[in-house]
Each structure stands twice: as C-alpha cells, then as structure tokens.
Amino acid sequence: MRNVPEVKFDSYYAHSEIGEFLRGAEAASDGWLSLGGLAQSPEGREIWLATLTDPSTGAPDEKPAYYVQGNVHAHEMYGTSAVLHLLHTLLTSPEARRMLGEVAFYIVPRANPDGAEYALSTRGEVRSRTEIEEKLNGVIPQDLNGDGMILSMRWEDPAGPLSVDPEDPRLLVPRRPGDCGPFYHQCIEGIIHEYDGGPLRQSTNSYDFNRNYPVGWDRSTDQARYPFEQPEIRAVGDFLIAHPNVFAGIDFHGGAPAILRPDSMPNEEINEGDLGLVLEIGRMGEELTGLTLMSSRDYRASWRKPNVLPGNSKDFAHYGLGVSWYVIEVGWGFSTAGIGPDESFDALPETRERDFMRRIMRFADDHADTDSRVVFVPWEAYEHPQLGRVEIGGLTRAAVSHVYPPEMEEISDGTTKFILRHAAYHPRLALSGCEATLIGAGIYRIRGRVANTGRFATNVMSTGLTARTQRPVRASIEPPEAGEVLSRQRILEFAAIGGGGDFRPLEWFIAAPQGTEIVVRASHPRGGTCTETLTLP
After folding, report:
1. What's the pLDDT at 300?
2. Which of 37, 118, 379, 429 suits a disulfide with 527, CB 3.0-4.6 Å?
3. Tell me: the pLDDT tens digits for 51-99?
4. CATH number attached to the domain at 429-535
5. Residues near 10 by Cβ (< 8 Å), separated by ≥ 6?
6. 324-329 and 258-261 as β-strands: parallel, antiparallel, unpaired?
7. Of 470 and 219, more confident
C-alpha cells in the first residue's frame, strides 16, 4: 500500500503523533485498517486501537485474532515504536498482508497515554501513574526552575551520603570511606510538604499497571485497591474477554532484553503440553529476535529468590484466558550502553551506581549527534524556598530506562518477524471427507470430519478449556426449506479440537429431494469458519 506513514526511529512518539500516524495509516489502508479506541484515559486521551484484516475474507471478529500492546509502563515508550513497526509491516509487506487474510490483528500502540505523556514531557519519575499523597516532610514533585522537566535536587552537607564521581564529575556516587567531599544529599525536584527539617521522604504513590491484572494479584505489590482498578488495564481486560477470537498476544515492555514467558507456577506444575508449546514458540522467538527466552522467576540476580510477578499480563492471558502470550523486554539504558542481562542482574549496587552510569554517559557523549534522549541535564543553582541553595539537574530517567531510539529499528524488525511467525500458529478449521449417501427414498446420510490443521488447539492452552472466553467448535448442516434433519441435532458442538490435524466425525440424516444443495459449516472464534456445499445424488 502506498502512502502508509513511515515509522520514525530518531525519537519517541508523543500522543498526538501516534494519532497522526494511525489516521494516516487508516487513510492509506484501503479499508484494511479500522481505527477506534479501547477507552479514554483519566486525563481524556484516546487509548488507540487499530484493527487490521483483509476485509475481502471476512470481518475481524469472525477470524482468529492476535493482540499486541505497548507502553504500559510510562517510560517504556519504545514499545510504541515496535508496535507501529508491526502495523506498518502488516500493511506494506506482501507476505504479512497474506496473513491478514486469515488473522485479524488488534493493535494498541500505547496502553498508558497519560503516563507516557508525563514521562516524555517532564522526564519525571513514574512507573505507570503517580498520585500525590501529602505527608510530613514528603517531597511533592514539581518543576521549580521552569525548564519543563522534573529532575533532581542536590545540596551540600558534610553528612551527605553522596559525593562527586572522581572520573565523571557530572555524576553523584555513594561516598566511600576516606572520601574528602564535598558531600551531597539528593532528592527529586519539588516542594516539601510541612517541612520541619526532618528526613525527607516520597510524597507519591506509584502504580504499576502490570500488577493490576486479576490472576495472582497481590495487594502488597500493587498500590491499587483491587484488580482492574486502573481504568486502562480494565479496558484491556474487558476487550480481551469480549473477544474470544484472540488466541495469542504480545505485551511490549522495556528492561533487560528478554522474552518472558508465563511462569507464575514452577515448570513442574505447568501442564506439560502447554509448557512444550511455550518453550517451542519462545525458542523460535529467540532465533528471530536475538532476545533470550526467560522465566520471570529467573529475571533477577542469581543469588536472589525466584521472582514471581503477581497480577501481570502474561499470566492473566495464559491462566485466565488460555491465550499464548509473551512479554517482550526490548531493552533499556543499560543494554544500550552494552551492559547485558547477566552483567546487570548480578552487579553489585556500587557497580551499578558508578561503572554502569559512567558507561551510560560515555555512550550518550559518543552519540550526542543522533541521540534524542535527554540523559543528563547540567546542574544549575536554585534558591529553594525551604532548603535554601540547591542545584537542579543530573541524570534523567532516560539514562537507565530508555533505549537509544535508532536501535529500535533493528529490534523491531526481529520482534515483528517473531509476531508474524507466532500468528501463523493459529487454529485453522477445515472440513474433509464430506459426502452425502442415499440410504432410502429421499433419505440421505451426511458424513464428514471437522479438523483443525493449525498448530494450536482451538482452546490454545489447556487453561483455555475453563476460561471465560472458551467457546465450543460448532458444526452444522443447513438444508433448504424443503429439507428436514431427521436425527441428531442440526448443530453439533465439541469442547475443543487439538492442533495438527486432530478431527471430530460428523454425521446427520436428512430428508430432501434429489439434487438439493446443502451446506456443511464449522466455526470457532479462534479457528475461523469453513463451509462445504454438497449436492444430494
């Protein structure tokens, strides 16, 4: 398709730019892309939903569907770049367009527009959303010096825990025994609520949207009061539950580069068939993306206890809906600076705070001409109304959290290939051996088989058999008005049909005139619809 907007990889998308890109893609798509929204955010921004499919082969809700979302965590806006790369490929690559004849794609480029806009505009600290909670000596984030950013404040104090890095004086590092100073305190830029000279503390609640799903939810790891309290995540959940045709999905995040699989239970407690598929697809993803397949239990320092992440999207999708789902961690500031997962996981705190920050600064210096990230802001003096003379500036959240934007083009190429290969696993219903046999005057026996030639079973994972989105395979015979089904039900239902050619036999008896055309039909939300027309002999 001509005139589909190109994806930019020199910087990250603001909310308005996403809307402009999607509207341009819709206009150029010849009806293959329909633009809508999951919901509006609390601040009134559209959570865009792009639905892609070949309209000549049926409506999207009548086909197996693949769901993709990005940017659940505010500072991980590079997930949006990966999602838009997929969307662009689906509309412009002949091979990918053929996939849209069989599969619909539901694409949410930015699931958390409010958080991302705050992150992009202020560079301030935010996981998914922050909420002010006024408390004694609590620092309320605020842009004090009017530079449009919420950075850090530092001030000298002989008892301060930080000192200037002797190798890179832009950085503050933990003081060591024998250091001569000067020494500093540091906190987020802002005003202190009811300051009485005591120790400072945070005055914000931080919400993590990827702990708010209703599988394995744990109040101790989620500031929310209950699962799906966050309206953005509730909108995602409502959409997935309302679309039983979704068989697989990807949730793009940013951290140590990896493909994370469902893992709230240890391997020995996971259904063997499910685990085999999870590993097979994940290892295929490793080959296509260069990312390492990992369990979240191992997404940690080797000496820590297994890391179980309650209330996350992949466990909700796998255990709650039976969907084949992965979280793709595309990278972060450490990986951009050449610090891989093994090195970053097991690093001592001082290594992270000294050596890693130096390496990040060196990378930023070496790529200053092409790096749109603001990694460091020079310290500038400011007269704070409560603390007196301070300096505002320092490392931004981008230093650790953001991938160097041009890297995303290569990363996105691999993740798009993985998604297209994953989507090809979809259940695929087919009819075979259908025949009509005359067994008496005007009486016919109709026989055949409904098979699933896709790799996935119609329930995809074993957990899909008990999911709210579970639907049976339905096979029916449609005689004309002159015909009559004499035995058995006209519509047969099967709880599920396995992948790889598994089938169920079909049989009906009907009364109808010779030469009558009848239609055998089989359908399933995740397996599509197939028909065969028979002429009674």
Report:
1. 85
2. 429
3. 999 999 999 999 999 999 999 999 999 999 999 999 999 999 999 999 9
4. 2.60.40.10
5. 370, 372, 405, 406
6. antiparallel
7. 470
